[in-house]
Design brief:
Blueprint lengths: L2 E4 L2 H12 L6 E7 L13 E7 H8 L38 H25 L4 E6 L5 E8 L2 H5 L4 H15 L7 E6 L2 H23 L3 E2 L5 H10 L6 E6 L6 E6 L1
Parallel strand pairs: 5-6
Antiparallel strand pairs: 1-3, 2-3, 4-5, 7-9, 8-9
Length: 256
């Protein structure tokens, strides 16, 4: 297999044609991987195409010429030999166990790296900010920003800080800390947002009960949808569920 890459599938095929000094009708192409733009450098991938000359494919697939059967010869009878007992396959080698100390070091390294990663993005946004890591749960990391441009860092309806949080979580997932849950905060925004979501859930539930009709809330990230579900979990007059596809997935509140 000969793989050629390019920003698009056609670009990868063109690279293969140039390398083989051939025309399009002289080769067989197979797309191995489609291109992917990614997001801020994460998950980016070029198109990968296998380009092979048709003559090579034909030679390797041509049937072998038939051979005339060899004359049969009668071999003298041989004494039967008992088969040897099968040798047992060696037991698989156990993977080395990661100690709690090593796991803690990896976690600390990933948290330090994600702080540098987020600081770079925030600086590129033109925001002067510092980041402090606060103690969280066993699998939680909370990073708090301090800046004079709090509104710019939060963004409309928290879109900027939520996007940064998603990027940070992806970074941890790709650096051996997928079990760690990341939360970003600035100016106590998360607490204020939680109070807003609680009021929204309760007022919408009252409206659903009064009208008898379901209501779709605005799309939210998964951790905010969980807050809505949690607030109304014990409300026996309404039920909640999420509908739609990311990033437009939203909570639906309807009569029970």
């Amino acid at each position: 297999m000969t793989i050629y890459t390019g920003k698009t599938e056609e670009a990868a095929i063109a690279a293969g044609l140039a390398a083989l000094n051939s025309r399009r009708d002289q080769v067989v192409t197979k797309v191995v991987a489609t291109p992917r733009k990614g997001f801020l450098g994460l998950g980016r991938r070029e198109a990968m195409v296998d380009v092979v000359l048709k003559t090579v494919v034909e030679d390797t697939t041509a049937p072998a010429p038939a051979k005339s059967p060899a004359p049969k010869s009668v071999a003298p009878a041989k004494a039967q030999v008992a088969p040897k007992p099968a040798t047992p396959a060696p037991a698989p080698t156990a993977e080395p166990t990661v100690t709690p100390q090593e796991r803690r070091k990896r976690r600390e390294a990933a948290v330090n790296a994600v702080q540098d990663y987020l600081a770079t993005i925030v600086e590129q946004l033109g925001i002067d900010a510092t980041i402090d890591a606060e103690a969280g749960g066993h699998r939680q990391v909370r990073l708090v920003f301090t800046t004079d441009k709090e509104g710019l860092l939060i963004g409309k309806h928290g879109r900027t800080i939520n996007a940064l949080q998603s990027l940070g979580q992806l970074f941890l997932n790709h650096h051996g800390a997928a079990h760690v849950e990341l939360e970003l905060d600035v100016a106590n925004y998360r607490e204020r947002r939680a109070a807003t979501l609680t009021r929204l859930a309760e007022s919408t539930a009252r409206e659903v009960v009064a009208t008898g009709k379901p209501i779709y809330l605005d799309p939210m990230p998964s951790f905010e949808r969980k807050q809505i579900h949690a607030v109304l979990a014990k409300n026996r007059y309404v039920t909640t569920y999420s509908a739609g596809k990311e990033p437009h997935r939203a909570v639906v509140i309807e009569p029970a």
